[in-house]
Amino acid sequence: MTYLPFSPDPRPLGKSGIMVSPIAWGMWRFAGAGVDEGRKLVEAAFEAGVTLFDTADIYGFTGIEGFGDAETLLGDIFAAAPGLRDRMVLATKGGITPPVPYNSSRDYLMEALENSIHRLRTDRVDLYQIHRPDILTHPQEVARTLEDMVASGKVRAIGVSNYTLEQTRALTSLLTVPLASTQPEFSPLWTEPMTNGLFDLAMADDIAILPWSPLGGGRIAKPGTEREHAVAAALDRKAEAASVSRASAAYSWIMAHPARPIPIVGTQNAERIAEIAQVFGVRWTRAEWYDVLVASRGERLP
């Protein structure tokens, strides 16, 4: 039986020179936990083989308060256990400014970076990403700002999140440092980046793909529609054969794409974080992989 290629070894984060795990852990819902509980989750991710940790200044925001809370909690954990910081590749994001809602101007982003570094109690961010595109900021200004962040030594690599293909292409054409990553929504239930050219651009330009919501916003775990049940059933066939959870099958399906996406696991449950390690033993045949895609499309491929 011939399987699609996959390596559990660390991989380059684009052209940044930074090596990361093939799967990441995200802290969207990290705020609210205490330092001891939060540290257990971080250490569980390390134990599962994760080295890339993704947060953002907006994480923890309730719509009224909590802006920066996830970063603050992680900074408190670093203060209690300083060795954890140097074991991880730390990524954060900025540019969402409720209720405006977005601001990628130079003044704002430079201040946002300083605030993130202060909350995280560190002297640098390994990957700094524009969280969502700001239509009112010219990509030339964004490019110069990101370059200056890298030149300052406070940022090692730069990326974008939720950028369209054309927005990504415009920004990269103006940058003199490589764009290390792009962070689109992608899952067996949302495959548009695979067909709209974004994955193709990433492969051509050696940009790492960091999919968010790899479980379709929880719909893979708890399917509701006929289509969602069909995708879950296709994943279950692989999960049962490999003796892993459906979630692990979904992550491994994403990772089997030749663009080598690095899915961001969002669970805040230590036991489910431990399941991340299961993905490294799952291998897909072409037929199995396409079965999931056909279930997602709801029709046979042409």
Nutshell version of this structure?
This protein is α/β, with parallel strands linked by helices and 302 residues long.
Question: How is this structure best described in words?
Answer:
The protein is an alpha/beta fold. It has one domain: TIM Barrel (Alpha-Beta Barrel). The protein is built from twelve helices and ten strands. The strands form two sheets. It has an eight-stranded parallel β-sheet with strand order 9-8-7-6-5-4-3-10. A two-stranded antiparallel ribbon has the order 1-2. The radius of gyration is 19 Å and the shape is globular.
List the helices and strands and how they pair.
Blueprint: E1 11-12, E2 19-20, E3 24-26, H1 35-47, E4 52-54, H2 69-80, H3 83-87, E5 89-94, H4 106-120, E6 125-130, H5 139-151, E7 155-161, H6 165-174, E8 179-183, H7 192-195, H8 198-205, E9 208-209, H9 226-242, H10 246-255, E10 264-265, H11 270-274, H12 286-297
Parallel strand pairs: 3-4, 3-10, 4-5, 5-6, 6-7, 7-8, 8-9
Antiparallel strand pairs: 1-2
Helix pairs in contact: 1-2, 2-4, 4-5, 5-6, 9-10, 9-12
For the record, give the distance between the C-alpha atoms at the N and C termini, rounded to a whole number: 25 Å
Principal-axis shape equals: globular
Please provide the ordered H/E string of secondary-structure elements.
EEEHEHHEHEHEHEHHEHHEHH
Biggest sheet overview: 8 strands, parallel
Lateral arrangement of strands in the main beta sheet: 9-8-7-6-5-4-3-10
Mean pLDDT: 97
What are the main properties of this structure?
302 residues; alpha/beta; TIM Barrel; eight-stranded parallel beta sheet; 12 helices; 10 strands; Aldo/keto reductase family oxidoreductase; oxidoreductase activity; NADP_OxRdtase_dom
